[in-house]
Each structure stands twice: as C-alpha cells, then as structure tokens.
Design goal:
Blueprint lengths: L1 E2 L1 H8 L3 E7 L16 E7 L16 E4 L4 E4 L25 E5 L5 E5 L2 E5 L4 E3 L5 E2 L4 E5 L4 E2 L2 E3 L4 E11 L7 E7 L2 E8 L8 E10 L4 E8 L5 E15 L1
Parallel strand pairs: 1-5, 2-3
Antiparallel strand pairs: 3-4, 4-5, 6-7, 8-11, 8-19, 9-19, 10-18, 12-13, 13-18, 14-17, 14-19, 15-16, 15-18
C-alpha cells in the first residue's frame, strides 16, 4: 500500500537511513518481516522485488521497516501507487481530443485513442444486378485518428464500435436492394428494402460491432433488378464506444 512520509514517521518514529536499494536485484538483500525498526533505504533502481506483499518500486521511493513489515514511501517522479484512492478534482495532462481513458480486460485504467469517422459519396454509382458492389466514398467529413481511407475503416484500438451505413437507390419496379457492412472481408450486417417504380428506397444498417486492432469495415450494396441500378447518396460513419 502507498504510504506518505508523515504516516510512516508517525507509526515508526525516528528513521535511520541505511543507503540505497536496488529493487530489481534486491541489493542489499531485504526479506519480508525481517529488519530493524526505523531502518529505511532509498530505491536507486526500480524493480518488482516483493517485500511484505509490495512489489512496485520506483526510483526515489523509500522502503522502511516499521518493526513488523517493510513499507513503501512514495518519492519518485512517477506515481506508482497501489490501492490508491483519489477524491476531488483530478487533472490529467497529455491527453488529446482523440484520446480517452478506458478499462482494459483486467480493469486497469489505460489511455486509448477514440477513433471516429464519417464519409459520404459525391456522385451516383452503378450497381450491377445480382452483384455485391463495394462503395467508395468521395468525401471524408471527419476522421479523428486517420483510421478511414476511401472505402475502409481500420481499427487500431480493440473494443466496441457504433457503425452506421446508408444508401439511397433510384426507383425500380423489380427485385430488392441491400446494404451490408463487411467486417474484415466478410458480411457482418445486412439491411434490405423493396423498391418500387416511383420512389427510390433508402436502406440503413446500424449496429455495435466488436473489433480487434487490424479489423476493418467496408460497405457493399446489392440489387437484383435485372439490370444496372444507380444508387445516389451513401453515408458511412462510426465511432469507438468502449474498450474490449
């Protein structure tokens, strides 16, 4: 547990400086529950030697014996506390607009980027009948972490993403129109609409998709009217929701 200098001196009394301690090689050799009350060492080399359940030692910390156990006094430039409780307002520097805090699988707080993107087509595209056609987007509206390019969003952070895709087809009296989100080369989510001869249908798909780093997303459209069928505006967007 992280201790302050005042709490250690109040519990132990006078402190007796014994020199420096290498927490990697345990030099000089220290052992759990073995020592002289008041003796303390300054950590000169960070390490993970375990003394009375404490295994996080940073340069500048002190290790002091209270007569029963060794205790750690935080003194380094980097806070490496254990069982640390923070109250009140806490300011974190070094974060950017595309960076956030999240919990990893072990519930450790980590800093992650937060990818978000949005793109749309700039011209009509012909979709051949009975063929899945990949959509290329001419306008990138935003891309917070440079994860999107032309037709593909590539994840660089493992987690869950909200993803949306939409396409507006021109009127047709035959067949059906579909929009699909592909994940790493395979169809993941498909939406369908039935067109008519007087109104161009809009097809929208939206889902939360789990992704690992290097997974990628693309949008495909499909129609089976019997001939080429144009689709007009198409949108593709998504954002990181939370870590895996």
């Amino acid at each position: 547990m992280l201790k302050s200098v005042s709490s250690i001196t109040n519990a132990i009394g006078a402190l007796n400086y014994k020199g420096t301690w290498n927490a990697t090689t345990n030099t000089p050799t220290l052992a759990s529950s073995v020592g002289v009350k008041g003796d303390y060492y300054l950590v000169s080399v960070a390490g993970s030697t375990t003394l009375n359940g404490i295994s996080v030692w940073g340069v500048g910390d002190s290790v002091a014996f209270n007569g029963v156990t060794w205790q750690r006094i935080e003194g380094g430039a980097d806070l490496e506390g254990v069982n640390l409780t923070v109250s009140g307002t806490t300011t974190l520097s070094g974060l950017t607009a595309s960076t956030a805090l999240a919990l990893d699988a072990n519930k450790n707080v980590v800093s992650v980027v937060v990818p978000a993107f949005g793109a749309n087509t700039t011209s009509d595209v012909a979709a051949s009948t009975a063929t899945w056609t990949k959509v290329t987007y001419g306008t990138e509206k935003f891309d917070t972490n440079s994860n999107f390019a032309s037709s593909t969003f590539t994840a660089t952070v493992a987690g869950y993403y909200q993803v949306n895709a939409a396409a507006n087809f021109y009127p047709s009296a035959l067949g059906q129109c579909q929009v699909a989100i592909y994940k790493s080369g395979s169809s993941y989510l498909v939406g369908s609409v039935v067109p008519n001869s007087s109104q161009g249908p809009a097809c929208v798909v939206s889902s939360v998709i789990p992704m690992v780093a290097t997974d990628y997303l693309e949008v495909y459209v499909y129609q089976n009217s019997g001939g080429n069928l144009n689709f007009g505006s198409s949108d593709f967007s998504g954002c990181f929701l939370r870590g895996a």
